[in-house]
Design a protein that fits this description.
NadB, FAD-dependent oxidoreductase, FAD/NAD-bd_sf, 19 strands
Length: 536
């Protein structure tokens, strides 16, 4: 058995995990970072989700390192791609001209920039990255986790990592059940949280839909139609009562009004990508599906460089409502994960063969899955997009009353222990319990340190979507810049505890320690407070 020792073990190489590893290393800690897949980056890479960002992201509202990531992605395109001069000169280059956010790009580019950010720390021996390693076991002494065991998916061997602090940055909070850290799943009851949008009865298995995303280009005159899936008829018949028709169709509920909305689909529009304004406060951008999460706009580049745009399919039609992919038995979780992929496969076939076209025909057989973009054999994501993780039972639980505009007309709660900021609507996709969208305005918010710190376990810190939110508030704390900020705060806190020989619970309870670590965070470019901004 291979053994590693570290000050800080970061489990999960998504955005939170990468940010945590960088923060811990730059503050003097020895770090081991593990990741289940071959790629780092999580929802930005392995799940094929371009960034969902707030309207002020180009000016403020993120950490300095998240800004470095964004700047690095843009510089990569300027350096390596044949951009037109007008596109190259854009200060806020959006390579895909996608409408979901101002920086839509290919996952491999984000991966390259993440690897570059980690490289000097790996060369210095401060960060060790273990790819294709799955957390399996934990050694626990009272309220402390002393070591964790991992299974190496490449060799079949086992690895043990001994560390002073364990940061859970996995996509689904996988460290929590293994270490015995108390956690919550699914929907809490209104009697428990007092939230206006909470359910009458708690449903631990009622979670937001997952989606298995995929990448497409379009090549007119070619036929890339996949074989008809064996279960296509079953997926074609899925029609939730409140969906306004079959889920595999162009009509879906509007997230804000729940009224029927007909989507538009126009592959490879001859648009000017330099004129696209991606600002969700002005236009959510999701009516026209091709450009919504487009990650490469061919008109940004010299004529002939690309014969098609590339877009990501992450649309309502692939939200899987059949059941949660966490919380059940291993067999149940695997079955739901496979079903989510089957639904996406059937939707691809529908797009290629049956989808109504504006000209009266059906299907776009020229739609081509792009495995070269996804790093997989079939053009589908390495992992499902998991919107809702297990969540720690933290020292503080963030509830709807802390930030919802309807409840707090004067602004979000100001936390004395803020370790970062974020902004997004309370945006819950339809759920495995049969709920429709919940999508309501929320104020720009802070991230309290106490939401990263468990009630009991002394050396586990939440470093991603598993912080102490509720089912409701998870809807605005789950997006890319917030996950990065949470991870960076967790890594900074862990390294601070190493250096001071203390524990997170002592930091949150000791004003002098709390002030010191927050001052250090601010000095390293972590924004802790919002200027005077409104909601969207």
């Amino acid at each position: 058995m291979t053994e590693f020792r570290a000050d800080v073990l970061v489990v999960g190489g998504g955005l939170g995990g990468v940010a945590a590893a960088l923060a811990a290393a730059r503050n003097g800690a020895q770090v081991v970072l593990t990741e289940e897949t071959a790629w780092l980056g999580g929802q930005l890479t392995t799940q094929l989700v371009p960034p969902d960002e707030h309207p002020w992201i180009e000016s403020f509202g993120s950490t300095a390192t998240y800004r470095r990531l964004r700047d690095g992605i843009r510089e990569y395109y300027r350096r390596e791609y044949p951009l037109r001069s007008a596109s190259r000169s854009l200060a806020h280059l959006n390579p895909g001209a996608g409408r979901v956010g101002p920086l839509c790009h290919e996952p491999r580019v984000a991966l390259a920039v993440i690897e570059a950010m980690l490289a000097p720390w790996q060369a210095a021996g401060k960060i060790t990255v273990l790819r294709r390693h799955v957390p399996a076991t934990a050694q626990v002494d009272g309220d402390h986790v002393t070591a964790m065991g991992f299974h190496d998916l490449e060799t079949g061997g086992d690895v043990t990592v001994t560390a002073r602090f364990v940061l859970d940055a996995t996509e689904a909070g996988d460290v929590l059940p293994i270490t015995g850290t108390e956690f919550t799943t699914g929907a809490e009851s209104q009697a428990d949280t007092g939230e206006p949008h909470a359910a009458a009865i708690a449903r631990p298995d009622n979670m937001q839909a997952v989606s298995v995303c995929f990448a497409l280009s379009h090549h007119a005159g070619e036929d890339h139609t996949i074989d008809k899936p064996d279960d296509y008829a079953a997926w074609r018949a899925v029609a939730p009562e409140w969906w306004h028709g079959p889920q595999l169709g162009w009509v879906a509920p509007h997230p804000h009004t729940l009224e029927p909305r007909r989507h538009v689909f126009t592959p490879n529009p001859d648009d000017d990508p330099t004129g696209i304004v991606a600002d969700q406060s002005k236009d959510p951008g999701s009516d026209e599906l091709w450009t919504f999460r487009r990650i490469l706009a061919r008109n940004h580049f010299r004529p002939g460089a690309f014969d098609s745009d590339i877009t990501i399919v992450n649309w309502p039609m692939i939200d899987y409502l059949g059941g949660p992919v966490i919380g059940g038995t291993a067999e149940q979780n695997a079955a739901h994960t496979a079903a989510a992929r089957a639904q996406s496969l059937s939707f691809l076939y529908w797009l290629q063969s049956e989808a109504p076209r504006p000209d009266g025909g059906t299907g776009w057989p020229g739609l081509k899955p792009r495995p070269d973009v996804t790093g997989t054999a079939d053009g589908f994501a390495m992992r499902p997009y998991v919107r809702e993780s297990r969540r720690i039972r933290g020292q503080y639980r963030i509830v709807e009353q802390d930030l919802a505009v309807a409840v707090r007309p004067g602004g979000a709660v100001s936390y004395h222990d803020s370790v970062g900021i974020g902004s997004y609507r309370i945006d819950l996709h339809p759920s495995t319990g049969g709920d429709n969208y919940i999508d309501v305005p929320a104020w720009p918010f802070q991230i309290p340190m106490r939401a990263l710190v468990p009630e009991r376990v002394r050396n586990v810190i939440a470093a991603g979507k598993n912080i102490s939110t509720t089912h409701i508030t998870n809807g605005c704390y789950r997006v890319h810049p917030v996950e990065w900020t949470v991870g960076e705060a967790a890594g900074h806190l862990a390294s601070f505890c190493v250096a001071r020989d203390t524990e997170p619970q002592q930091v949150t309870a000791t004003p002098d320690l709390l002030a010191e670590v927050r001052q250090s965070m601010a000095a390293q470019g972590m924004e802790l407070d919002w200027p005077n901004v409104t909601y969207y």
